[in-house]
Write a structure and sequence with these properties.
The complex is a heterodimer. By secondary structure, chain A is of the alpha/beta class. Chain A is built from five helices and five strands. Chain B folds into three domains: 40 residues, no CATH class; 213 residues, P-loop containing nucleotide triphosphate hydrolases (Rossmann fold, 3-Layer(aba) Sandwich); 45 residues. Helices cover 47% and strands 13% of the residues of chain B. In chain B, strands 4-2-5-1-6-7-8 form a seven-stranded parallel sheet, sandwiched between helices. The chains are: A alpha/beta, B alpha/beta.
Chain lengths: 142, 312
């Protein structure tokens, strides 16, 4: 058992109107199998709902999934919602059907990393691990 | 957000969601300073909070019913805390916590604080930090706290102890399980709830439960131990809540409530002591030569004697 990773709590959220969450569930399960505690919010959540849940659950990272093209508006909207409730420090990662040319803009907006259907799962797990470790180092206090 | 115990205590009193959440993380991870936070909570609020457990087999509708109960208590303007526990994977230690999905109606309500927790190896249907989490939520002004356990079988009794009152939720179509439960939770749960009351077999199940409960002392003031709900349609939920609240007031008047909390606290101390001892014991047993033919019970006695002296 990976003792260190078992303390990492992450939230997987699906903002917007996508009806499909296979990708989100796949990532959630992969994270669980890697020892993460994963809070899954279900589909069709608003950015505000995702931000409020992330705060209540005190997660060390958030993963957003989008398959229907709403990412350019919705991912940054989650960042804004987090900032609005004083939680802008929680790292946000994103994935889904995201055209290559839009990745830079999302990262410039503050999304830590973007994954596309070709990204190996190990890369995604490593990115979550790193984001969580960094957040806890800067944040945990005790 | 850099935190110190004093900031967290102040934040909890101010009902700041981040401070509440961080305090829960501290107790969950066993942070050294969490004791200071716990000591700073307002005892009056903890005493006043009504703590209700919702337990039952997987698929009985615990999360949906919990979501409806939140709605009921919010209409009464109570501040509501929810702890939803799901199992940790015994292989990876990870967990998928999905109870929020059925409670998202309340996601933006500042007077509903919800926390998903993984059982982290505990087998009793709760997690080790559940007791402390109840107290933090109470300290943050939650006057009703609902604990939703992992989907349980027959013997996961931890919630019976921690909650002031526990409702066992079952659904029709799980008939054989109900038979099997006769010697377990069915004997100790305060209320027996037949959920999915609109499904075939619900009435028969309620009758079965009435029969099973007949041997137990009657509840006071004409309250019925068996309730019927259809949580998906929000039917029977207000009646269930009313029964819980009435039973709770009765027990507070009679002193039963206070006695139960005192006992629960003592037993939680024992739990924590065992929790803290476990790694030490494992280390000690790992250091001894493997004598596989010796009786494990005898070896355990010797181990304890070496820690505390022989039993008197």
């Amino acid at each position: 058992m990976n003792v260190e990773a078992s303390r990492y709590r992450v939230l997987i959220g699906k903002p917007g109107l996508d009806g499909h969450d296979r990708g989100a569930k796949f990532i959630a399960r992969a994270l669980r199998d890697a020892g993460f505690e994963v809070i899954y919010t279900g589909i069709r959540r608003t950015p505000e709902e995702i931000a409020a849940a992330a705060v209540q659950e005190d997660v060390a990272a958030i993963g957003l999934s989008s398959l229907s093209g709403g990412h350019s508006r919705l991912f940054p909207a989650v960042l804004e919602a987090l900032q609005a409730i004083g939680a802008g420090d929680i790292p946000v990662l994103g994935g889904g059907i995201i055209p290559e040319e839009e990745i830079a803009a999302l990262q410039a907006a503050g999304i830590r990393q973007i994954f596309t259907p070709g990204t190996p799962i190990e890369t995604i797990l490593a990115a979550f691990r790193e984001a969580c470790a960094e957040h806890l180092r800067q944040n945990q206090g005790a | 957000m850099v935190t110190a115990p004093a900031n967290l205590i102040e934040g909890i009193r101010r009902r700041d969601p981040r401070a509440i959440a961080r305090a829960i993380s501290w107790v969950e991870s066993g942070a050294p300073l969490s004791g200071q936070v716990m000591a700073g909570l307002e005892q009056d609020l903890i005493d006043q909070a009504r703590v209700y457990g919702i337990t039952g087999p997987p698929g009985a509708g615990k999360s949906t019913l919990t979501g409806r109960l939140i709605g009921h208590y919010r209409r009464q303007e109570a501040r509501v805390g929810v702890i939803a526990i799901d199992p940790s994977s015994p292989l990876s230690g990870g967990a998928l916590l999905g109870d929020r999905i059925r409670m998202m109606d309340h996601a933006l309500d500042p007077d509903v604080i919800m926390r998903s927790m993984a059982s982290r190896g505990r087998l009793g249907g709760l997690c080790a930090a559940a007791g402390a989490t109840v107290r933090i939520l109470a300290g943050a002004g939650c006057s009703v706290i609902i604990i939703e356990t992992v989907g349980v079988g027959q013997s996961e009794m931890d919630v019976i102890r921690l909650a002031d009152l526990t409702a066992l939720v079952v659904a029709p179509g799980q008939g054989d399980d109900i038979q099997a439960m006769k010697a377990g939770l069915l004997e100790v749960a305060d209320l027996l709830v037949v959920n999915k009351g609109d499904c075939p077999g619900a009435e028969a199940l309620a009758l079965d439960l009435e029969t099973a409960a007949r041997d137990r002392p009657a509840l006071p003031a004409g309250l019925s131990r068996v309730c019927m709900t259809t949580a998906s349609e929000n039917l029977g939920v207000a009646e269930l809540a009313k029964t819980l609240d009435r039973l709770d007031s009765k027990r507070r008047q009679s002193g039963e409530h206070q006695a139960k909390r005192a006992l629960a606290q003592r037993l939680e101390v024992v739990d924590w002591a065992l929790e803290m001892l476990r790694p030490r014991l494992e280390k000690m047993i790992g250091a001894t030569e493997a004598v596989t033919r010796d009786d494990p019970r005898q070896l355990a006695s010797a181990l304890i004697a070496s820690l505390t002296g022989p039993e008197r």
